[in-house]
């Protein structure tokens, strides 16, 4: 697919190149989210999620921040109306989580509160060495109420997740890697190159197969094992009709690298 550099949509800068869609969050000074940024995401993401030519989505921030969290100038209004206006942040996360393609969180800088929640909804998290990640809401008398209180225990286990949220721990990259909160830590000077290479590797994989895999892991985790195995087999029957499955097996027999098309 030829390169497309999208027009800046409010606080987002989307661009598509060779099957990789990169969404850059650019809301100085800290990329905090508010209803306007949420609306931008809900406008930009669905076409990229639905586009079969887009085979990997990358999220990243600008400057020292990935996303610093919710805009405190908005959140200080402790009303139900405020909470409802900010609640669609979970819809943004759900779009990423359910996208039938890999989603990479490129944690170029600090990912705090709602920024960490956004990262949790992605399939892979690569973190710059100087960045931090955490859930400091408790210091404001709050808790991670936009997905964090539910996704973090599913990732790390209930006890470890509770400790991080109760203590409001802000983790250095090395500690986040040790806990399994992120998947890779990269020196700052190598970060951009690593993100490009990782996104390219993800985009070259069998996209529809990844979409199936994401779905059965997500849906099967809430089912008893017998039902989950039935779900898995139904997906296998879908899988054998996917062109990339035939290509992968034939490439193995031909002793060559497969060329997946995402179909």
Keywords:
alpha/beta; 7-stranded mixed sheet; 48% helix; 12 helices; 4-stranded mixed sheet
Describe this structure in words.
The chain is 48% helix and 17% strand. The protein has twelve helices and eleven strands. The protein has helices at 35-50, 72-75, 80-86, 89-98, 114-120, 148-156, 158-167, 173-179, 188-203, 207-220, 225-239, 243-254; strands at residues 4-5, 12-17, 20-25, 56-60, 65-67, 103-107, 110-112, 124-128, 132-134, 170-172, 184-186. Strands 1-2-3-4-6-8-11 form a seven-stranded mixed β-sheet, sandwiched between helices. The protein has a four-stranded mixed β-sheet with strand order 5-7-9-10. Helix 4 packs parallel to helix 5 (114-120) and helix 6 packs across helix 7 (158-167). The relative contact order is 0.11. The mean pLDDT is 95.
Q: H/E order of the elements?
A: EEEHEEHHHEEHEEHHEHEHHHH
Category by helix and strand content: alpha/beta
Largest sheet: 7 strands, mixed
* Uncertain stretches of 5 or more adjacent residues: none
Gross morphology is globular
Number of DSSP helical runs: 12
Using only CA atoms, what is the Rg?
19 Å
Mean pLDDT: 95
Q: Give the distance, in angstroms, between the N- and C-terminal Cα atoms.
A: 15 Å
Estimate the helix proportion, in percent.
Answer: 40-55%
Adjacency order of strands in the biggest sheet: 1-2-3-4-6-8-11
Give the beta-strand count. Answer: 11
Strand content: 15-25%
